[in-house]
Structure formats: structure tokens, C-alpha cells
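Researcher: Good morning. I'm working through a list of sequences from a screen, and I'd like to move beyond sequence-only analysis. For each chain I'm collecting a predicted structure so we can compare shapes side by side. This is the next one on the list. No need for commentary yet; just the structure.
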Amino acid sequence: MVFFSVDPLTQLLHGTFTVTRSSNLGATPFGLVGGSTADADVLRNGEQVTLDYSAQGGTGDLAAAMPPGIERRPFVGSDDGRAAGRCLGWPANRRLQERLPMSNPAVLIERLPDHVTLVTINRPEARNAVNGDVAAGLDAAITQTEADPDTWVVILTGVGNDAFSAGADLKAVSGGNGHLLRSERGGFAGFVHAPRTKPWIAAVNGPALAGGCELALACDLRVAVPESRFGLPEVKRGLIASAGGLYRLPRALPQAVALEMILTGDPIPAERAFALGMVNALAPRDGLIAAAQALAARITVNAPVAVRHSLDVARQALDLSDAELMAESARAQALNMTSEDFKEGPRAFIEKRAPRWTGR
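Model: Good morning. C-alpha cells for this chain:
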């Protein structure tokens, strides 16, 4: 774990940042420190922003230079500065090319142990409804986790107890910002149609209705609290569930049950979803993330390259013919055989030891 600080800015900045380019920056256990000049390109909640600041003095201990009352905030990432976290600055003799508003990030990204990343929708005041910030944040989270070789499984959840996600933010839609609730790559929420090679687990902390249900269905596995519900109520408002729910729900449930839910708009409780196989496990609220981590750990104990190729074929199981799936399986096997992990598995078995997977 390292600390990421853009040193120092003209104001305290809050947001989710990814450094994409930096110059004259040195990484220390205390953060990124600048020499006489420094600049960096960052993504703030998925939007490109350029920081341009100058300084007197050189490198040193940032913690010692910070004034009282300013807290260093940790993030998880690589030591070379390409990572995401909370940007922290303090008033000083610096200039900022673009001032950024102070706000809580709509999507939080946190590295957990054992090659797992937790992505959290952070709009409790709106029952984690999807607005433009959530869509941009989830799109950026996919980019980050796909690019991170140390992330093998991703968990998606929502803040609070009121909802996993209430779906589309109708205030944003009525305000003329409905187009911001989707991305070109990922569709609704920047997520439901986005290409992803790694397993995603939905940790459903409350009702998952409408677009929230479609977010859960777009994940590969689901863990839920007993108090949660799943439903597609769009027809009750003259709408249709066009973000994947109409075809993913019949894949996750018996067809008659799925059609009943789609046509009536009525939800089912988590207990029934679990009994019918849509939910992998139920967990108490205070143990939900731990349960999702436990499921993730059962995945990450395996070779990550083999997991990704296997998942790629399995996701297509209901869409392709057997002949097409045979060809896809052969392609996946050929690609897997080129990996270092393909050699490590048999080697570890012969040497009677646990395999040391690298993900390469």
C-alpha cells in the first residue's frame, strides 16, 4: 500500500483519480513528491483532467510537510503512480490548471486481500440510483480492474441498507441528462454490456429493482442479504427493462418464474431467488462482503488465466450452438496453453506443493 498525494494543490480535492501520465514525480512510502516542477494527467471519475503545478524545493517526506489537521488518505495501487485513489492536497504555492469541485465520489474502488477489488456505488441519498457520475465511475472501474494484473475477481455492491441500486436516477432523466446514464462501451450504467474478462460478484445489500436488478444480473455471481428483493417493475410505468433484464432474467430463473416477474412487474424475495438458483448465497447484512470475499477466494485459489478463459466460454453457453461452443472451447484451450500458469499447475502437482499462480 502506498499513499497518493498531488503535492500540494490550491485546495483540498476529493474524487476518484487515476494517474495516466506523470513527469518529474518520485514515489516514496509517503506519496508522490515533486521536484522543481511537475505535472500529471489524471482521470477524475473517468474524465480527463490535467494537473499543472510548480513548486519550490525538492523531494522529501510529504507527511512532515503537511500542516496539522490534514490527513493522509491511503489508496491501493502500483508504486509507479498508475493507480486510483483519493486525491489529497493542501493550500500552498501551487497553481491548478483546472479546479475540481469538492464532492464525494459516486463510485468507490478498494483493493481487498487475495486479488479481489471491491467496487461500491456510493449514492445512499438516492438509494444508489444510477446518474452520470455512477455510469462514468463504473465505466472507469471496469477499465481499472481489467488493466490491473493483481485483480482477479471484482465485487460490486452499494452503500447503505436501503438499496443495492434503485436503477436509473429519474431526476437525472427528467432533467435532460438521461444520455449520461450510459456509456458507448458499457450501455446502461457504463456496465451492463461492457466487455469484462474477470468474474464479477454482486453483493446485493438491499432491493435490486429495475436497473439495479439488471446490474446484478450483469454480474456472474450473486450474494444477497435476506432482506433484498429482485424485480423488473418497468411495465408498471409503461417502460421495458432494456438493459439486459428481459433476456438475462430468463437465464437466471426458470422461464415461467422469469416471465411472471417481467409481465407483472412484481419482485421476488432473496430467499426465493436463492432457492431457484439466481442467488449463490445468502448472508447477514454485517457479513455480506465477507461472504462475497469467501466466494471470491474459492475462485482466486485457481489459475486466473484458466478462470478467465473458462468464463469467456461459459458466458456464451446459451447463445451459441454446440458446434460453435466446441470451437470456442478449443480456442480458449489454445490460448490457455500459452500461459505460464498452464505449466505451473502440473509442475506443482508433481512436486506435491500448492501452485504459485502469476496470472500470466
